[in-house]
Amino acid sequence: MTAIKPIFEKIDLDFNFKEYTFHSGINELDDFFYEYSSKFIQYGYSQIYILRNDETPDVMGFFSLSSSTIQWEESLGIEKITRYVPGILLGMFAIDERFQRKKFGSDLIKKVINIALKFSKEVGCRCVFVDSLIISETINFYLNMGFKFVDIPLGKMVIKKLVNNEKIERKTIKMYFDLYKIQK
Ligand SMILES: CC(C)(COP(=O)(O)OP(=O)(O)OC[C@H]1O[C@@H](n2cnc3c(N)ncnc32)[C@H](O)[C@@H]1OP(=O)(O)O)[C@@H](O)C(=O)NCCC(=O)NCCS
Predict the structure, then answer these.
(1) Is residue 1 part of a domain?
(2) Exposed/middle/buried for 103, CB within 10 Å: 0-12, 13-18, 19+?
(3) Whose CA is nearest to atom 21 of ligand 1?
(4) Residues enclosing ligand 1, CB less than 6 A?
(5) 184 Cβ contact partners less than 8 Å away, ≥ 6 residues apart
(6) To the nearest whole number, what is the mean pLDDT of the chain?
(7) What is this structure's pTM?
(8) Domain total of the chain
(9) Of 82, 85, 93, 95, which sits most exposed with the smallest number of CB within 10 A?
(10) Beta 84-95 vs 127-133: how paired, if at all?
(11) pLDDT per residue as tens digits for the range 63-95
(12) Percent of the chain with pLDDT over 90
């Protein structure tokens, strides 16, 4: 078996989605990729980046990026300048099931942070934001990558409920990565 040589690229409206296979196991994310990505690119709502296999028609992972702000909170540990903190939203993000747990996700998060750092030299951008799905593996993944909960008490409550297998009403929780951690 030959080693995979992943190609990382930003896609445009010419990208032929039908030629590629992608299945993350989360319908909402797969549907976004196939049904909505083009519209988001066309109307300037997001840019979409993929990791694909150079030899087979497989998309190994993808993410979408948009500009965004969140309301400043004491617990963010970020200096308060105005009511809103500027950043980049990692809107959609998934790795194909066949390629999960092989560090492709970690590599893509590093790409996201690099893009955000470059962007921050041109436009004010302090953080990368994500609305993480409330799934233990996903939250652990973001925590491992250096993301924090925007609302720490809520984060603690969600983790406690996940550990105790209790029902959680919400589907996502907001997390952020502070780019100043790297810049300083
Ligand atoms: C979450 C996701 C993006 C992680 O990408 P990945 O390539 O599978 O993760 P990595 O191999 O880079 O894992 C890095 C670390 O995250 C944690 N992690 C990732 N997947 C995990 C799992 N299924 N179970 C437990 N820990 C996990 C581990 O700490 C792992 O390090 P380790 O393998 O050395 O223990 C991917 O599994 C995925 O697409 N899941 C479904 C969709 C999703 O949740 N998307 C995020 C939407 S907000």
Answers:
(1) no
(2) exposed
(3) 137
(4) 24-26, 29, 93-95, 100-106, 130, 132-133, 135, 137-138, 140-141, 144
(5) none
(6) 96
(7) 0.95
(8) 1
(9) 82
(10) parallel
(11) 999 999 999 988 888 999 999 999 999 999 999
(12) 92
How far, in Å, are 14, 89, 92, 132, 184 from residue 39 at the CA level? Answer: 12, 17, 14, 23, 37
Residue 72 in domain: yes
Tell me the CATH number at 177: 3.40.630.30
Domain span at residue 115?
6-183
Angle (nearest 5°) at CA 140 between 45 and 133: 40
For residue 72, report the phi and psi dihedrals to the nearest 5 degrees.
-65, 140
SS3 175: strand
Q: How many Å apart are CA 33 and CA 28, to the nearest integer?
A: 9
Three-state secondary-structure class, residue 94: strand
